[in-house]
Amino acid sequence: MIFKKNTKAKIAIDVMGGDNDPEACIDGINRMLKLFPAVECLLYGDERKIKEVLQKYPKISNKVKIFHTESKISSREKPSIALRNSKNTSMRMAIEAVKHGEADAVVSSGNTGALMAVSRVVLRTLPNINRPAIVAMVPTIKGTPVALVDAGANAECNEQTLFDFAVMGDAFAKIVFNLEKPRIALLNIGIEEVKGTEFIKNAMLKLKEAGGLLNLHGYVEGDGIVDGSVDVVVTDGFTGNVALKTIEGTAKLCEHYFKMSFSKSIFSKLGYLLARSSLKSTFKKIDYKSYNGAMFVGLNGVVVKSHGSADGKAFFYALNTAIDLVESKINDKITEELNSFEQIAKREIKPTE
Amino acid sequence: MIFKKNTKAKIAIDVMGGDNDPEACIDGINRMLKLFPAVECLLYGDERKIKEVLQKYPKISNKVKIFHTESKISSREKPSIALRNSKNTSMRMAIEAVKHGEADAVVSSGNTGALMAVSRVVLRTLPNINRPAIVAMVPTIKGTPVALVDAGANAECNEQTLFDFAVMGDAFAKIVFNLEKPRIALLNIGIEEVKGTEFIKNAMLKLKEAGGLLNLHGYVEGDGIVDGSVDVVVTDGFTGNVALKTIEGTAKLCEHYFKMSFSKSIFSKLGYLLARSSLKSTFKKIDYKSYNGAMFVGLNGVVVKSHGSADGKAFFYALNTAIDLVESKINDKITEELNSFEQIAKREIKPTE
Questions:
Q1: pLDDT digits (tens, 9 = 90+) for B238-291
Q2: Which of A98, A320, B2, B48 has its CA 20 to 30 A from that of A86?
Q3: Which residues in chain A touch residue B243, judged by CB atoms under 8 angstroms apart?
Q4: Beta partners for B232?
Q5: Which among A152, A220, A147 is positioned nearest to A185, based on CA atoms?
Q6: Which residues of B touch A249 (CB under 8 A)?
């Protein structure tokens, strides 16, 4: 994907969603505007607080539009209740900006379940999609990224939901990773056919019915997410969220161990100084913040979820993801993919009818 | 835990279980016997193949006893079918050695489901335990290990099963980690009370009913497994297995990135040379092989499952785990713990009766 200095995307931002907001959001916007000075930012949140933080960033104060609201959705709120009480919250107002064409994408570090519930009601799903999913991009050992679907939107799924995730993941990987035939796998606790729950085995049977429409790799285990053997890993939102957070936690653990090992002796400290520049790029590679910004696929609009605990740097990456997805016209292309999938499916079924 | 040079443990070994067996097993035994020369090894498998490999290890040939069988359980076999056809297989014979008191523990790199099914039938479960579980030990950022229960024995669980896992994990951590009040957490997709499936919420209610008997921390997300905030993470076997393999895969990914970064320039290569010794100990720390050997808890006997893909070094660690568990009389102590738990529970309930 290509970043363009003159990109004109309009991003609606819920600046009251995350643990460190509005500070993190505004710091992230500041970083982003240095790269993309033509991007328009619509900020939804408490005007007084926003202006207070903006004092630290005088250069961007006149580049953002503030839409005042004091109400926000708490991270502790149940999605159904959050949805019911969402009127005039910063999150809902930001999503509505996309619906009304005032913004091309929305970014929030808020309550994931609520963001999904409100987005679904306000933006509606794409044709033929019943339940939207979260796609998280994760680095692999081969250097290529992998798309994990669903990374946490649907804690409970059925076979059809997993099938839809596979189709959306396929479309996403074709567009975002620029692949002709993304390799699709189902996450399981073994790669042999007999392994796993009945639910997983039935989902695999359903995927196999799609025949040549999907480049089905089979099952992968947890380590298969990051080993580069596949491009899309399909799973339910509970397992996907656990896997994603486990990857982040383990990467932090490894980084910590490595940093410790450089402080052990005068030799290792010297070694660090010599290898510093390449090590820094490695620390960056495994820093989960660089992968912040998961897309909600299956909605009539680009919705990017940033980590609840995102800091400015992480929020910057989430904004980048949103701009990237807007630039690549992701939803038009997913719809196109889904349509052609439907048409091919109909053609393929015809002879046996 | 203390390793003793003169430990007299007798270990029954299924030498036909793993992908690299019998080579990996025998290489692992060779490494182990250098540390524990008094350990007795009972080898179950194809005598001809074993003797062929043993030619490379002349020093240990007279230290192992071979029990010949040509039949083995395939890693592709469904547990129920494997159990039915398990008679005279290397795995079953090794487990039976524990049942008959000929060995103190059994180690196998074979089919996890089959190892659990056969162990359950041959050894039976401990009193009050319905479904045994796999406990995997994982390193954390604070340097202390964490016990993940269940790491893959029971793909489908109910609230009571998770409760039993918590009690067994509690006992395991008290004994193996030497903790008075291990901090117990339930794996979830959020730490707030409203997060997760109905199943997880009900399991949490059940755990809360145990009152002060468990030092209940609440929920952790995937990154909470390795952040050192808790000592025991309870989850179903599907999620636990995915999390464990994801940790392994991510650690490999990070190791790979770091190794790459040292080969980037002459400076980073020099840096590596200087920091080599402390880096090596870090690579070892994050090498999943050092954590090979997961215990099956809840059985009348010590059963250690080694990775299917274990090499000699990894199998060596699995053997160490088995010796360690035998030395610490793990099962006597778990039974004691479970009994006192039962008794305290009865006492606690009495006043309200």
A1: 999 999 999 999 988 888 887 777 777 777 777 777 777 777 777 776 676 667
A2: A320
A3: 222, 242-243, 246
A4: B147, B184
A5: A220
A6: 222-227
Name the segment(s) of chain A with CATH classification 3.40.718.10.
Answer: 1-129+298-329, 130-290
Question: What percent of chain A is modeled with pLDDT above 90?
Answer: 59
Q: Do B245 and A195 touch (CB under 8 A)?
A: no
Contact predicate A50/A22, CB 8 Å: yes
The whole-number pLDDT of residue B344 equals 60
Main-chain dihedrals φ then ψ at residue B299, nearest 5 degrees: -110, 155
Note whether A244 contacts B226, CB cutoff 8 Å: no
In this prediction the pTM is 0.87
Topology (CATH level 3) of domain B1-129+298-329: Isopropylmalate Dehydrogenase (3.40.718)
Cβ within 8 Å of residue B327, ≥6 positions away: B1, B2, B3, B4, B7, B9
CATH number of A130-290: 3.40.718.10
How high is the ipTM of this complex?
0.86
Which candidate in B76, B78, B80, B246 is best for mutational testing of the A interface (most A CBs within 10 A)?
B246
Q: Residue A155 and residue B196: Cβ atoms within 8 Å?
A: yes
Residue-wise pLDDT for A185-244, tens only, equals 999 998 887 788 899 999 999 999 877 789 999 999 999 999 999 999 999 999 999 999
Residues in chain B with CB shorter than 8 Å from the CB of A255 are: 254
Give pLDDT, residue A115: 94
- B238: nearest CB among A189, A279, A281: A189
